[in-house]
Batch of 4 targets.
Target 1
Amino acid sequence: MSSPRKQIILGHYLGGVNHHTVWSDPAAGSQIAFSSFRHAAQAAERGKFDFFFLAEGLILRERLGQIFDQDIVGRPDTLPVLASLAAVTEHLGLVGTLNATFNEPYELARQLASLDHLSGGRAGWNVVTSFDAFTGQNFRRGGFLHRDDRYVRAEEFVALARQLWDSWAADAIVADAENGRFLRDAAAGTFRHSGRQFDVAGQFNVPRSPQGRPVVLQAGVSPQGRDFAAATADAIFSPYHELGPAQEYYRDIQARLVRAGRPPGSVKLLPGGTFILGDTEADAVERQREVARAQVSGRTAQILLETVWNRDLSGYDPDGPLPDIDPDPTGPPVIQGRARLAEDPFETVRTWRALAEANRYSLRDLAIRVFSHTEFVGTPTQIADRLDHFVQNDGSDGFILGSHVTPGGIDEFVDKVVPLLQERGSLRAEYSGTTLRDNLGLPPVPVAADRTPQGTPA
Amino acid sequence: MPEPDPLHLAVALDGAGWHPAAWREPSARPRELFSPGYWVDLVTEAERGLLDFVTFEDSLALQSSLLGGPDGRTDQVRGRLDAVLVAARVAPLTSRIGLVPATSVLHTEPFHLSKAIATLDYTSGGRAGWRVQAGRPAESPHFGRRDSPEITFDNLDTPEIQAFVAASFDEAADHVEVVRRLWDSWEDDAEIRDAATGRFVDRDKLHYIDFEGRWFSVRGPSITPRPPQGQPPVTALAHATIPYRLAARAADVVYVTPHDLDQVRAIVAEVRDEQDRAGRAGETLHVFADLVVVLDDTAEAAADRLGRLDGHLDAPAGSDAKTFAGTPAGLADLLLDWQAAGLTGYRLRPAVLPDDLTAITRRLAPELARRGRFRTEYRTTTLRGHLGLPRPASRYAAAAEQRIEVASS
Ligand SMILES: Cc1cc2nc3c(=O)[nH]c(=O)nc-3n(C[C@H](O)[C@H](O)[C@H](O)COP(=O)(O)O)c2cc1C
């Protein structure tokens, strides 16, 4: 008995610390007050979303040695916010982005298992692999990794975390007061792992959590990232929004899954995206135009292009043409603390010049076009159609949606688009399970895995 | 005659209570120790009793009756949830009581810890605190980055072990210093949202902390703005000179473990002496005594209950802190006596949860209030407020000159 339609998976993320969030909007609220997070999470739960999602960045961004001052900045620590949100939500999954380079498996695995206990099985972990020495300055061990080693460490990290999560049998606690037996076996939590990144042994101290293992997401699109996801993840935060490339990516991941010995469909693909609604299409497009100009000021446009040029572009008129000089990828970094945006800056600049020429774009227009993309613009019906079409045609299994207005931007989506998706049977009317795994339609972690010692990656 | 100072009262929460056999009591909920409702109930009860704060125990190793490693026991509670996250889970469902999780610091990142406690301060509306602990040697193999010597109750006083302990506490002090600097690294008014100039923050009010110590260096600033309390209170448990020194340098509250009035006097004198030496003579440093408490209607009933609990053990329960078994009124007498010798408050460790917690909240606290020595309602909303600690300005805001120097270095 298969459902006639795929169910759309929905995540909601609350504002990143970047130009997408329009802090000057009169409706913009605090980026740090707990009330903002509670508002966004409760709205998502009202809309029967699968989960709430937080991104991570572990250092303030800098330009030429000065901290960015133009973007919204300052966010809370991911895990405590999610634990607090567990108190004010009931069904919503709680997914945190947490770095595998600047954390230690024993500590992070127990935090995630604790969150899973404290939320009744709603914890998820988006594994990211940022590895730069600039971020490492905030950490006692520095933490610089060679680019090629970022997934080596991430794979070993996740494998070890799973070993720790599996290290307590489901029935390890007997709590037999009469006979004075709390633990069935004094060896509960015993683990040993010896690998290139970690050489550890001992006893894990968090009993098996409601989901057995928190849900693992991955974000990263290189071939290594894709293989890592196919081998280990339950879901992927992907960057593909155009149906064609998204379908290609979808097929690629299914093929990698099969090669990794996992059934197709066992990893959920979830592109991120933002939306702008209007009463009419023209109205939405007009709103989008205004939002884009609010997101990308002339100053922000220069800075965004600097991430690719790696040159000081403050002398170039935002309303003038693109800088006529070549990028300088080997020079000292102009922008630090955000992910590298172009593998080959020369190629990127060539493409941009062509784009600017064809459309008569100014520097700022170009920046708006490439950095201020709103994926879903239209009336509620148009957006519902588009999301549904995308998922039913295997562009993805759902979306992780954000808004340029925090924390209230999601309300409009919940009030106007969600009922349309529910009407056509593509989104649940009520939650049917209690865990994040239930929400996502992932099979429960087999209890038989409890006692199986995990292989240690060579 | 000057009014006697009111007492500060905290309760230490851990598992089913502090007696190793607590989980076997009829009122215990040993199957719920890892469920959120259990913790919400306990903290809600503590808040009903108007307590200053609760602490949450934690460690990066399984509980053990031995200092060095696992003890292989199956007859006591084993397993713990992350204390910061338990506190965060409880925060939105309480409104006044302080929430003070413990963390071990020798294997963990001060950058992560600083934003975790700052965030708890946000989600609790200014009620976060922190208990810093050096941690146990059994934690080391879980991280595989450093070796710890074998420590037992027998070799604890040897020079090698004492040198190791001293280094651990120095490192812990560095950790606290980094955490505190990071809390200050955003001035309170750093966020300006100035649409006219397109600036969200005033970058002159964000500060590199540039900490460089013997064990690590951290640059900053934090990614989390300054927490509501500015500096959430830092607390530490201390049993000897080395940890007294850490507490005197770095803490707002130190928990000590005297067993009689003479020890109270001696310990308070030593802590105050270390405080002076740390150059903090004018600052508030609370000295709380830790006591394990077994409370009942009569002294005999309490002694019987303790006897029954001890009867489950192969040997009487050892404890660093004195165990008091008696009536709430008797405990009130003891608390006031010891307070007169220099303590400012207590961290009570209920032998059995919830029994001894409810005895504290429903009988001891009202008894002290009747004697005019404990609050009858919360008068402040933050943990610093409860403890009578003013909200400090950021150290970087205080030194505008230094600011230019730091920013340009
Ligand atoms: C959609 C998406 C979201 C990401 N979010 C974060 C994030 O919040 N924090 C972070 O440190 N890295 C984030 N990353 C970076 C990735 O974890 C990874 O470090 C980067 O993509 C390089 O890996 P790759 O070469 O496999 O793409 C994200 C990447 C993608 C594609």
Note: The two ends of chain A are 42 Å apart (CA to CA).
Target 2
Amino acid sequence: MKKDSNKISTSDGGMSAEAELLQVSSSPHMKARASTRSIMIDVIIALLPAYIWGICVFGNRALLIGAVSVISCAAFEGITQFILRRPVTISDFSACVTGLLLAMNLPVTVPLWIPVVGAFFAIVVVKQLFGGIGKNIVNPALAARVFLFSWASDMTGFVKAGDRVNSLAVNSGADVTASATPLASLNSGALPSETISDMFVGNISGSIGEVSAILLLAGGIYLLFRKTITWHIPVSFIGTVAVITYLFPKAGDSFDFMLYEIFAGGLMLGAIFMATDYATSPLTSAGRVIYGVGCGVITVSIRYFGGYAEGVSFAVLIMNLLTWYLDNLGMPKRFGETVKKKKES
Amino acid sequence: MAYTFRGGIHVNEYKLSSESPIELLPDPSEVRISMNQHIGTPAVVCVNAGDKVEIGRVIGDVPKEALGCPVHASVSGTVKAIESSLVSAGVTETYVVIESDGEGRLCDSVKPYGGSILDADAEKIAGVVRSAGITGMGGAAFPTYAKILSAAGKAELLIVNCAECEPFITSDHRVLLEKSAAVIGGVKTLMKAVGSPRAYVAIEDNKPHAIKKMTEVLENDSMIDVKIMKTKYPQGDERQLIFALTGRELAAGKLPVDAGCVIFNAATCAAVYEAFLDGTPLVRRVVTVSGDCVKEPKNLSVPIGTPASALAEYCGGFVKDPAKIVFGGPMMGLAQWDADAPVKKNTSSILFLSNEFLGKPSSSQTCIRCGRCVANCPMRLMPAYIAQSVMRDDIKGAERYGAMSCVECGCCSYNCPGKVEIVQYIRTAKNRIRSEAARSRSSANDK
Ligand code: SF4
Ligand code: SF4
């Protein structure tokens, strides 16, 4: 941002002898270090424990799926930006975050072309065609996941934690025994056979990165600590689910039922990492709380009454669409405005 | 518990010169004194090239009815030239250039105030303050006499703003330590003038020495209290200061006096005291010379009109090439076009900043909607949405999201990970909103 300016005077030897131009860009003249890239790296760090757990309990194939997904996302981002003549911004790592989230939302048994198709949909269709980072309307990874439900049988091949799938072939092979997730039994009105502590630790069947509630929570606390996210969305989202399921349990003791519901399915991953996606969630505090509550209500409604097993993805996608309205609704009262009104009345 | 406000940011303090005592800069060989020293009507030059002047001689004055106060010669010597030049803000300013004879002769008109301050009323005190050419020395440079007159009888609380929340600047800190008697004397004079029964000296808790010193000096004073403020930017902003101390929120466009307060800067108080004590008008001020390029950051007492380069030279020159010279703090200060830009009455610091310090200007400014700017904005505006509206050319939208209430503190731009120059967009919005309002007014007049 250099503009024309006078030269630094060199009235004596102590002063600069170089005829440098002075910058005169406007204030502030200092900036914090945090950048889009450092934020994305923080998100990746926060996701890794839960993802590594996924690799441990679901086998090496989970690692391969992650790699395919991340590399495809980065490649599609670079290629699209190149074709659209936009600056190529793979190095901000936002595509890698999308890739990692997408992989963590897939069952380990999916054929390898699934993450590639998902990456294409997430990055090209949802993100870049809407203008790139910060401009997309819905969460790319979630939209891709829902799109991939078109291949429903491939997308529901969940295995038990510990039944490690190590096949690195395009199709995982027939030796896989699919297992119902705890969420499926909850939705059918029965407490699952897994214990609550299994659910908390992640000894259950499910998508690669969604099973370990405790590690996802740890990642969330890291992000809160780093001020990457605020508490509003995760707390209001999970809190709403907790309150509704506690008040209206479908089976067993209401407290147990509530715990199963909040540890089951993609709620932790969704509430901490997907619903908080910057581009597609409100940036005012009040807007964020309403958004989180909305996500919670829709999630439980779909789980209780819907045809799909998982409500989190749809709930977040629906609330994504309301982001702009929620920001205007949640616009803070300007400094001095409340006081002024009081004075006038 | 220290007093504070909501929002704002923590910035790296870089108070490199807080331990350096104020040093007297010898009169430079030449000073260039701007006639735009304050908000209001610029002064009109009342000397001619070739005139002999002494320290304290009026060289520029404003008509009595206009908002503004006289400008005085800061060195003794000969008026070399009267010139106009373009300054960074894109406006032309007139300068009186005085070649110093190094003798430091005082003008005959510099005399101590004759009577007792106890007998003086607001009018009289304001008169002395006006003819001493005193303006706010913290930033906005509002003529102090006008502030006194507008607050007289209406302010129940006088606040001495010693927050000094901008990084690098330590001039007020040193003034508090080394001229505490003058500051207190000024505070008492100003309290008398505006008729306020109480005063707070508000100091951020990153200046424990100053807090200790002022607490000692004010130990037996029942009317003036030291208030410890939490170190957070922008604590020194008038609105946030009033809120922190009184809980009253002052909407944009309102003045402190609407909340029953009047605020003076510490250096301004000391200047008022000196104007009464020995009659010295505002011809010197303490300037912090700092930044990562300066060899020995210092606090200097310098004649108004001294070129920035002379200050750098006195501080041992540069260890790195400066890429930007800023008058004021790094958050709100003004970048200068010229290394010889002269010190003004409100120049609390001059910073020489290198390219490494400034960082590379980002090639892409992309909002990722992280929400930091909204959370940090002390005025509780929607900075991201204002910037976005400006980018889309939607000036009405920018207004709706609060552009006109922005105090340009820079918290939003500072913390933006997408490196969006939000404040710059907001300034654009303000200019467009103002010019559109002016246009609709003038077209209404045409009808
Ligand atoms: S801080 Fe920057 S990136 Fe974050 S919302 Fe504001 S403008 Fe957008
Ligand atoms: S919008 Fe204005 S008042 Fe708010 S943080 Fe930015 S510069 Fe400060």
Note: Chain B has a mean pLDDT of 92.
Target 3
Amino acid sequence: MTDKNLYCYAGIFDTPDQIINAAKKVQSDGYTKYDVNTPYPIHGMDSAMDLKPSLLPYVALVVGFLGAASALFFMWWTNSVDYPLIIGGKPFFALPAYIPITFEITVLSASIMTVVTMLFVIFKFPNNSHPLHDTDYLKQVSVNKYGIVILADDPKFDESNIKQVFASLGASQVFPIFYHEEVINFKPRIFEPKFIWFLIILFVLVSGSTYITLNKLMFLPPYNWMMKQNKVIVQEKSEFFKNGKGMRMPVEGTVARGFLPYEFVNKPELAAKDLLNPLLPTKYNLELGKTKYNIYCSPCHGYHAEGDSRLRGQFPNPPSLHSEKVRSWSDGRIFHVITEGQNVMPSYSSQLSREERWAVILYVRALQRSLNAKESDLP
Amino acid sequence: MNTVDYTQEVPIVEGRPTLQEINELIAKPLDTKPDKKFYIALAVTLSMLTLGVIGLGLSFYYGTGMWGNNNPVGWGFPIVNFVFWVGIGHAGTLISAILFLFRQKWRNGIARFAEGMTIFAVMTAGIFPLIHIGRPWLAGYLIPYPNQHSLWVDFNSPLVWDVFAVSTYFAVSFIFWYVGLIPDLATLRDRATSKIKKTVYSLFSLGWRHSNRHWQHYEMVYLVLAGFATPLVLSVHTIVSFDFAVAILPGWHSTIFPPYFVAGAVFSGFAMVQNVLIFIRKIFNYEHIITINTLDRMNKIIILTGSMVGYAYAMEFFTAWYSGVQPEQFTFINRAFGPYAWAYWIMVSCNVLFPQLFWFKKIRRSIPIMFIIAVLVNVGMWFERFVITVTSLSRDYLPSSWAYFKPTFVDMAILIGSFGFFFTWVLLFTKSLPVVSIAEIKSVIHGAQPTHEGH
């Protein structure tokens, strides 16, 4: 018995009444390092052993609140800050609609954390190398016996005394339990570096493969089926039609409804001379021009037409529209640029109706005048 | 029978077995090799499962056009089956959590098994939303994650609530179940003789030592979990009902849905648990643990929830009439007398009429009759989901778009397959884990608790 250390003295009892009495006695005798093992929880054992109420409900409370707050925060952030989106006419922060998910996250986080705290922090599980494991003692108390152990490192530990106390309480068996130093572990296993490394590697693997699957793999063939659909797209070849084009041509000699051919193709001077702005600078027309200008022109020309593009060099910067040249141009000349485009500037004839083009010109004029106001313009 | 002594509590476990006997009895199915009957049963469920797998294979290969879903009935069998299976799960949590909070000790004999059925039912249910999205490999989009489109899921949508509710439900049920299993696994570990079994049990019992310093926290956590699981189980079917109730379709758009769905879920879940327990108690000789009194009590819950469902059916008609809204009134008349009248009357007779037989004590305690009634209840509850989903969609606001929904062979194959999937898990469960909680049963047998004599 030289390599064995004494762990505890154990007493085995046959009835729940006996074990309650034993626990009371051991507690009142002033032992602190003892434990009672029973196959199921015994009513009244908490008070017999004088155990303090478990604090785990507070863990549930705190984690539950944190879970609720983070769920709400996350939904607010995604829907109001990161990608504000109005859905079904609801406000960006639609509290009633967020309640179900907030509730679910509260329950989920609190349940998981309470159990995790209990098992891994309080019980220091998993641990299969405790001195009691594989002992005759544990094999009996896990079936039908009620056992009590007093640990050898209890300050009041005294073999003969304990034997006598257990016997007087009616123990059917009293025996010591020994353990080997090398095979025993009292420290929590989950804080071992091996386990922490395992967790880190697992985390990297799972998040990495999730990222690759969701953000890369799903956009590669054959998973990009959503992009490839069995329909005819304009400009595509077609086996079906005789002329081999997917696009249908208009019937010869006809024009689309509402289509007016532009008379001044490639004739800017003529346009400058002959085209007149049919719109008056009314409030309505200026508002319309402003809206359309901000949508279609401002990305390149800037909100104030100073050529301060927002395209960060991805497209050649246009000149300012406040130049002498453009200010002296007639409305018809600008109309021509919008309709036909000019060098790298594309045509805007399909995005803007004729009326809208004239309205944009009115707004450009207003911008020009605001930068070059004469004294007589002041009221 | 005539002279009942109401002063005496009905014993939960009959026949006063010893703790040792309980241990052996519950561990016996795990120690013995499965017999021929088990393999026959497994062969049946696996064949059903194979049929389902073939159905799924066809749907993935050719697309969801293999199903009966049409326009306007876009929600066909998959949604019906989803709601049905989630509902089946609800009995488990009700038994393990709600009855625990109400200190109904008779639940101790059936809680473990019912919880197991919850987990399997939710697993089965989970298949259906995934296949119903048509491209199951894109199911990742259901989860909010920073993606390439920089889009988030729509948190205002009941379908997204559903994703959170069902996955939370699965996770919490699983934790609850596992926490309950730990002491039993430790007991099995301590009696295991083979090395492999011992290693496996040691691994999963995490080193449990039946210590009362642990039992104290353990009981508290069990209480906390029960406290969480109770509102959770109510929320899950409430949210499932929002999938319907938040839409504006007549027949769906109804505030009565959440309680009505929850009652229906418990109703069908109890019927399913009762059905399976009847076999379990017979095959494993658990008649004194899962007593006829327990089954009697379950039947009482079936009649309670069944009557609530019946009340909801009546109230739907009343509301439709009282609202004065024409499409609403038409929907309900159409349900009872339209093209799907056959489904409606199956539902009403199975859910409302037959369970009323449980008012008779003789019937409540007769195993064959209660078995048949519970089977009918499940048929009825499946049809309830069918009626709600399909009849409302097939006759919506616009008569020009009306269409009749007919399930296809693939639909049926997947439905049968879902039963195969569920019962395969149930069968494997009975042979691999204790189907009755050893510790919980021990704590309620005669003489298990101290008498505190002389105090």
Note: Chain B has a mean pLDDT of 90.
Target 4
Amino acid sequence: MTDQSTATEPSGPGGPPPARARFSPRKRQQISRAVQYVVLVVAAIAVVLFVDWASLAQNFAKPEVARETLPELFTIALKNTLIYSIGGFVFAFLIGLVLALMRLSSVRPYRWLSLAYIEVFRGLPALLIFLMILFLPLALPGFEVPGGLYGQGILGLTIVGSAYMAETLRAGLQAVPKGQMEAARSLGMSYSRAMITIIIPQAVRIVIPPTTNQFVSLLKDSSLVLFLGVSGEYVELTKFGNDLASTYANATPILVVGVTYLLVTIPLGYLAARLEKRQGKGR
Amino acid sequence: MTPVNHAVEIRDLHKHFGRLEVLKGIDFTVEPGQVVCVIGPSGSGKSTLLRCVNLLEQPTAGKVFVEGVELTHVDVDIDAARRRVGMVFQQFNLFPHMTVLENVTIAQRRVLKRGKTESERIARDNLDRVGLSEKADSYPAQLSGGQQQRVAIARALAMSPSLMLFDEPTSALDPELVGDVLTVMRKLAEEGMTMLVVTHEMAFARDVADRVVFMDGGVIVEDGPPDQVIGAPQHERTKSFLRRVLDPTHTDV
Ligand SMILES: Nc1ncnc2c1ncn2[C@@H]1O[C@H](COP(=O)(O)OP(=O)(O)OP(=O)(O)O)[C@@H](O)[C@H]1O
Ligand SMILES: [Mg+2]
């Protein structure tokens, strides 16, 4: 590479001027930026010219169809999405906590069991887990998931979420300084007492930001409930949008449902980021 | 059974960390009401010895008795035994998610099963003892290091221990805060508390201790009254350690 400073340096006296780059770094940066803007403008013009806006609006943003989604969009679909994902989150959290404690246990088989569960269910696609639940009655005749369709949906999301939650909580538990357990034990608390009153509350605080993100991802995965064959009062947002879109042969409900997801996920994302920042400062 | 008149009795204590032998046979007693200061170079095993007294470290061999109860016995109720032994750490180790008052009441409530009003009264009495009654509703992060350490002392005292262990309680403090903590400890000693203190504060050891124990390389090198161990040490290792501590600018490496 040629010397960066050649552009500003006056050529030395006497000898031939040092080899100069054709453009100075500043010049090169300007050109690169200009090219980027040109590409952007060309792309925008192409989109405007080649997209059939009228037909797109007809298909994705038809006010009459959008109106048809109300009020069920909120009273049924969003409500069910929240039931599935909050339910799944709560159980995933509890099972994740048990798995995390097993992972840190002094009993080796517990550590193995927990590790096996985490590795298996973290490695499987969420859809596959829902399909397994769908076929569960075939594998175990007479067995029924308690809570009907809600129960099945929540079970699926619990399995999907718990493996990740276990890893997050384990990291949280390990992030609590060792001195906390020692102080608690030196006050006469048993191991489990110290875990419950001293360690777990601090670990939970530490993992709030990452678990908020995990809730967002469970909320999105709740769309997979679709594959359990839910209908009527059990539909969640995606199934709801899909059904209406077929009914009206129009994609507007899909767009409406998408916006509804974002109404929940974007604020939660910001909340997680803020909590993370606050924690970074507070500790 | 050992006679009950020793507050602490340690017999031929050994501790290994893997292949590293940190304590190489410690024999040692503390009588009720005594203040014993443990001094010695870094890595000599002082903290390990202290932590063996309430079994935060499991000894590899040897016996530890507190008030005649053998803590190293396989069937001992270690949680019950620890209630009689308070411990104060170099890093305070207050519970950051609880207020000062909750820090001082939580073990009373959960371990001793004292009621809310009783535990709060005892907590406030002990916060008063360390001069921090007005900080009851603060969180640890809002206090200075010296205040945090005094809360930690109050937290241990609230369990009504018969023995207090201190592991370099002032080493993490800014110099101007050391005095407050030492004053509290001195008061505690005057009230007759049995104390085992690992410290680098030679003035404190000389003034307050009934006995000073000098450790080096995992053994007790010298054990006696402060005038003797600090004032007129017999062993070369003690002498050179004291020279380094008392006159740090003249180290003979
Ligand atoms: N948990 C542990 N695992 C392995 N080695 C340890 C452990 N705790 C202490 N040690 C080692 O044991 C030796 C004695 O440590 P100890 O903390 O008892 O020394 P100390 O006298 O308290 O020193 P200091 O004045 O620095 O606190 C050191 O070499 C230390 O590295
Ligand atoms: Mg130490």
Note: Chain A touches chain B at residues 177, 179-180, 182-190, 193, 197-198, 201-202, 205, 282 (CB under 8 Å).
